Amino acid sequence: MKTGYYPGTFDPITNGHLDIITRGASLFDKLYVSVSCNPEKNPLFTIEERVILIKEVLKDIKNIEVVTSDILTVEHCKILGASHILRGLRAVTDYDYEFQLTNFNREISDEIDTVFLMTQGKYSFLSSSSVRELAQFGGDVSKFVPAVVKKAIDKKYKK
Ligand code: ADP
Predict the structure, then answer these.
(1) What is the mean pLDDT of residues 9-20?
(2) pTM reported for the whole predicted model
(3) Given this model, what pLDDT does residue 159 score?
(4) From the CA of 119, how far away is ligand 1's center (Å)?
(5) Catalytic residue among 2, 41, 143, 159
(6) Alpha carbon of 87 to ligand 1 centroid (Å)
(7) Would you kindly state where each structural domain of the chain is located, as residue ranges?
């Protein structure tokens, strides 16, 4: 059984994440979507809110489990029996960071490898931070996030 582990902050989950998760779920028997606490990033949504939204968005994909993490990614993979970390790549600007992170993780544990899925062109500019920024200025985020996430964003900004 091949198990993958897709870590992120997901503040909030976007259509870009969803694309990577959907395609990733077809590559693994089981895929963990792991939400990191990241309090230092001062998230818009609490970890509980992010988990509820992700579960709702992914409820029809059977081989996915949503978990939270405040430990090292490779350690969490070992605990859960995941052999591969899944990451999404957008533009070349992601490359440096992901290259460094992958090699760092490999240095900590060479049992866990990282695989990348290239985003579809239409999501290559999309990030959680750009969605938050757009929402903050009253813009329409409906093209970039699932409907339940849009609703939650509207509620945050009391639209
Ligand atoms: P982090 O803050 O740890 O980078 P994110 O939630 O921003 O967490 O991203 C988690 C993963 O999803 C990363 O591999 C990131 O490159 C990827 N990702 C984010 N947005 C997109 C997108 N639009 N298309 C493809 N992958 C994406």
Answers:
(1) 97
(2) 0.94
(3) 64
(4) 10
(5) 41
(6) 7
(7) 3-156
